[in-house]
Amino acid sequence: MPYLAWPVCVCVMVVAVVGIISWRFPAQVGGLIGRVTSIGAGGVKANPPAVVSQEVKDLAKPEQAEELLRVFDNQLLVQQEDTIKETYLKNVNNPSDRERVLVRHMAWLWITFAFEMTYNSVWGSQLGALQSLNESGPKGLAEDVLNVWYEVGKTGYPTRYENYSFQSWLAYLHGNFLTTVGTDHMIRITQLGNEFLVYIIRNKYALHKDG
Fold first, then answer.
1. Angle, nearest 10°, between helix axes 95-121 and 191-202?
2. Torsions phi, psi of 106, nearest 5?
3. Residue whose C-alpha is closest to residue 132's, from 121, 119, 148
4. Taking the alpha carbons of 171, 175, 177, 178 in that order, is the dihedral positive or negative?
5. 176 near 197, Cβ under 8 Å?
6. What share of residues in the chain are helix, strand, coil (percent, to 5)?
7. Furthest-apart CA pair in the chain: how many Å?
8. Could you list the pLDDT tens digit for every one of the 211 residues in the chain?
């Protein structure tokens, strides 16, 4: 499996943690936890919620957008923000249009990130199988046909495949949404799998890899 540069890992981990906390502990539950005075057989005892005016709330708690921005606040990101504004948003003044542009670019960023991770971890035999599935079209291929590619990899790299079964090899393709199994038990390439091959060719990456 590939290893990510530490800034990317930290950003992804922070986003995940922030999302989990926001889902698991909404404002009402967070407020209760802060007011608990004792827990016993009789239940939970807590102080009554403090009455805070709207004006005080606004001053005491920054807006959510500012909080989220500070999670990724560093000089490099600020410089990149300026580059994005100058390159992509300089002549886009309508807020809704700016949102559409940013969402489209963010979607492609996530796809690219996923493709790079997959390419770094995929084995050559799996790429060969993916190409065969692409050539088979909507008909797809049976498991025993794809097993031929597994055996090719196993023959070339016996040590690597020593504790790696065909089902695990195949599960990698399914787990990365590159392939799917139909009700007829035939295996087919997905749209993502097809675009993954296009991405490899477009970027002139090698289709022949170890494994």
1. 80
2. -65, -40
3. 148
4. negative
5. no
6. 65, 10, 30
7. 72
8. 443 333 444 344 334 433 433 433 344 444 434 444 444 444 444 455 444 444 444 444 557 777 777 776 778 777 877 888 888 788 888 888 888 888 888 899 899 999 999 999 999 999 999 999 999 999 999 999 999 999 999 999 999 999 999 999 999 999 999 999 999 999 999 999 999 999 999 999 999 999 9
Q: Which amino acid is at 183?
A: T
**DSSP-derived pairing of the beta strands 187-189 and 179-181:** antiparallel
Residue 143, φ and ψ in degrees, nearest 5: -60, -40
Select from 195, 204, 149 the least CA-distant residue to 172: 149
Q: What are phi and psi of 124, to 5 degrees?
A: -60, -40
From-to residues of CATH 1.10.10 in the chain = 119-202
Query: In CATH, which of 1.20.1260, 1.10.10, 1.20.81, 3.30.310 is domain 119-202?
Result: 1.10.10
- CA–CA distance, 51 with 53 (Å, rounded to integer): 7
CB 141 within 8 A of CB 186: yes
